[in-house]
Amino acid sequence: DIVFWPCVMDGKVRSIEKMEDKSIDLCLFNGAIRTSEQEYMAKLLRQKSKTLVAFGSCAQEGCIPGLANVTNRDEIFHTAYFDTPSTVNPEGVVPLTEYEADEGMLTLPYFYNTVKTLGQTVDVDYYIPGCPPEADDIWDALVAILEGKLPPPGSVIGKHTTVCDQCDMIRSEKKIKGFKRTWEVIPDGKTCLLEQGILCMGIATRAACGGMCPKVNSPCIGCHGPNEGVKDIGARMMTALASVIDSNDPEEIERIIREGIPDPVGSFYKFNLAGSMLRRSAFTGSESAPSGAAAETA
Fold this sequence. Notes:
This protein is an alpha/beta fold and about 300 residues long. Among the domains are: about 15-65 and about 115-145, NADH:ubiquinone oxidoreductase-like, 20kDa subunit (Rossmann fold), CATH 3.40.50; about 165-270, no CATH class. It has helices at about 15, 35-50, 55-60, 75-85, 135-145, 210-215, 235-245, 250-260, 265-270, and strands spanning about 25-30, 35, 50-55, 100, 105, 110-115, 125-130. The strands form 3 sheets. Strands 1-3-7 form a 3-stranded parallel sheet, sandwiched between helices. It has a two-stranded antiparallel ribbon with strand order 2-6. Strands 4-5 form a two-stranded antiparallel ribbon. A hairpin with a 2-residue loop joins strand 4 (about 100) and strand 5 (about 105). The longest helix has 13 residues, at about 35-50. It is globular. The two termini are about 20 Å apart. The relative contact order is 0.16.
């Protein structure tokens, strides 16, 4: 039986709170941890579940929401509520965690400075990668879990090769003198995209998709995260780029990367910043929610 599926069923948090601990056989947790409410739900579902799976890139690595870790809460709010062209906010109103209305106290979850992964919040039993996870991987994971044929706890349930291994394009160790944006070149359909000067993350990304992007001349963007044994996908990509750039001059290499890859964080860590070794930009300040902000949100 499905006991909690908020996007499909009208489930209540209080119903989960009343359940016995470990009474949920399997929980597929989707989403990164940005607010006190999400943190509370992660801890509650960990308490109530026998097996907790970080389902998809957001839960496993922070995904695209994790790119907000290059900034902080105040800057995000300032952009959202003051700087956007469509925003008219002369009174300078921003969301509060508490507001005393005529009807009583209204509350909102606290918005943290840092996006966290599920594994940075609670103990996770298994991970299913992908943005989104592929149907075959979901099915294989469910069968393995239900039949008890599981890898060691903490494992990623998925393939253990790279997108390059599923790509039919030919790699010949060709060196390049620069990188091109995807709109600046039409790939030839045969040669490795990286060797055509197109930033392709396939060499560092876990296989799962069958190489569907390179098969239509589109570079891999890393949506299934780092392959087995890769600690940091950005570091792995920088190593790969060092092997294809045709220069030994540090200044020239810096220029090639600066001109061809103007957004290295968004390119190398598009799906992985929160779960990477970098995690976030330098930040000074409290990460704690105000007293009571992480309490029940049902």
